[in-house]
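Write out the bound-state structure for PRP.
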Amino acid sequence: MHQGDIKKVLFTADDLAGVVEDMAARINADYAGEKLLVVTILKGSSVFMADLIRKLDVDVELDFMVVSSYGSAAQSSGTVDIRCDLRTDIAGRHVLLIEDIIDTGLTLSKLVAELETRDPASVEIAALMIKDIEREHAIEPRYVGLVCPDEFVVGYGLDYNEMYRQLPYVGVLDEKVYS
Ligand code: PRP
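---
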């Protein structure tokens, strides 16, 4: 990993900390007195989740999922394979899905539909970023931190070929890295 791989810093560590703080305050207000099941969709969302939960003062349990999605924004269909499912029975639980970035919306639209079949008390989405694009897959995240330009972004959990996840900021990857 080289410093020059990042063309531009989009969101600094301070920007991200502010977004996390604001979102956590809203979640604390909305779920006051409730117990939350925070479900992280690995791997990218792990960094955001780790920062977010440390700002929550409601009771929190954690679980994790690994999913793979196939499809593109141009397709109205697509599939999501659950590679590693929850270990928690979510019936009657308030589920908060944590996502680092919503791109086509395929992953979350399929996942929410699947989780709804398990009779949770509620399923909501907390997304750090949403791409500024037209979406084929309707999705209604309750919490969205930032609108992200339609560029190849890495850092704060997001990768290119599993690299750059540890950057404390979100930046645009230079084309020379992947062209
Ligand atoms: C990314 C991101 C979302 C998904 C969003 O995960 O974390 O899960 O893609 O894309 P969509 O809205 O078009 O479905 P990725 O598959 O890159 O896995 P990773 O988090 O392990 O890097």
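---
Helices lie at 13-30, 46-53, 106-116, 175-178.
The mean pLDDT is 94.
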